[in-house]
Amino acid sequence: PGSGPKMAVAPLPAQEFAEVLNQRTAALVDTRHMLAFGGGHIPKALNIGAAGHLSIWAGWMLDPDKPLLLVLDSDSQLPEVVAHFARTGFEKFAGYLAGGMSAWASAGLR
Q1: Alpha-carbon 65 to chain mean position
Q2: What is each CA distance from 83 to 18, 77, 78, 108, 110, in whole angstroms?
Q3: Quick one: pLDDT at residue 99?
Q4: Are 73 and 57 a contacting pair, CB within 8 Å?
Q5: Spans in the chain with pLDDT lower than 50
Q6: Whole-structure pTM value
Q7: CB atoms within 10 A of CB 45
């Protein structure tokens, strides 16, 4: 048996992440816990926590043809999150916010 999908998802520094987001070609998905999301998030982000139900919610709420921009609890969570998305056929990723929300805040972005 394989070890799951081997999709490369680019880590994007905060400023580059913001530029891709501003192009409005990708869906923004914040996979952090809802309490972290409630404490502060990027405007227009959709919160789908990185738990077992992520693939179900993604299937209901997202267009699989639209690339995803991801916000994670930590960069090390990427393989798990990508595996959840792959279960329902999501294979297009525009990247993830390298360093998470602390990198976003440090860059002075809102």
Answers
A1: 15
A2: 24, 10, 9, 31, 29
A3: 96
A4: no
A5: 1-5
A6: 0.90
A7: 18
